[in-house]
C-alpha cells in the first residue's frame, strides 16, 4: 500500500512541477472541492465553471525553454 501511495505522490509532484501556475491550480482545485460540498441555489453551474477554470490552469504548462533554465 505504501508503494502505491508513493507512486501516486510522485506522479502528482512531477505533474505539478511542470505547471506554470501550481499555486493557482491548487487553490482552484481546493475551492472546487469545497464548492462541491456546499449546496447552492442553482445546482452545478458554479461547479462546472470552477472545474473548467481548474482544467484550463492545469493545461498551462511551462514551455520547454523555461524548463531548461
From the spread of the alpha carbons, the general shape counts as flat
Instruction: Output the number of helix runs.
Output: 4
Ends: how far apart?
36 Å
Radius of gyration: 15 Å
Strand % is: under 5%
Unreliable runs: none
> SSE string, helix = H, strand = E?
HHHH
Structural class: mainly alpha
Outline the biggest β-sheet.
none
Say how many strands there are: 0
Q: Roughly what is the average pLDDT, rounded to an integer?
A: 78
The amount of helix comes to over 70%
Structurally, the number of domains stands at: 1
Question: Can you walk me through this structure?
Answer:
The protein is 77% helix and 0% strand. The model has no long low-confidence stretch (mean pLDDT 78). It has one domain. The chain is an all-alpha fold. It has four helices and no strands. The longest helix has 17 residues. The termini are far apart. The radius of gyration is 15 Å and the shape is flat. Helix 2 packs antiparallel against helix 3.
Structural topology:
Blueprint: H1 2-18, H2 22-37, H3 45-59, H4 64-68
Helix pairs in contact: 2-3
Amino acid at each position: 500500500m505504501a508503494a502505491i501511495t508513493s507512486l501516486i505522490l510522485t506522479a502528482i509532484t512531477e505533474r505539478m512541477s511542470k505547471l506554470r501556475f501550481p499555486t493557482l491550480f491548487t487553490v482552484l482545485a481546493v475551492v472546487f472541492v469545497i464548492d462541491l460540498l456546499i449546496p447552492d441555489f442553482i445546482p452545478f453551474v458554479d461547479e462546472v465553471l470552477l472545474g473548467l477554470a481548474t482544467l484550463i490552469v492545469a493545461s498551462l504548462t511551462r514551455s520547454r525553454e523555461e524548463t531548461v533554465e
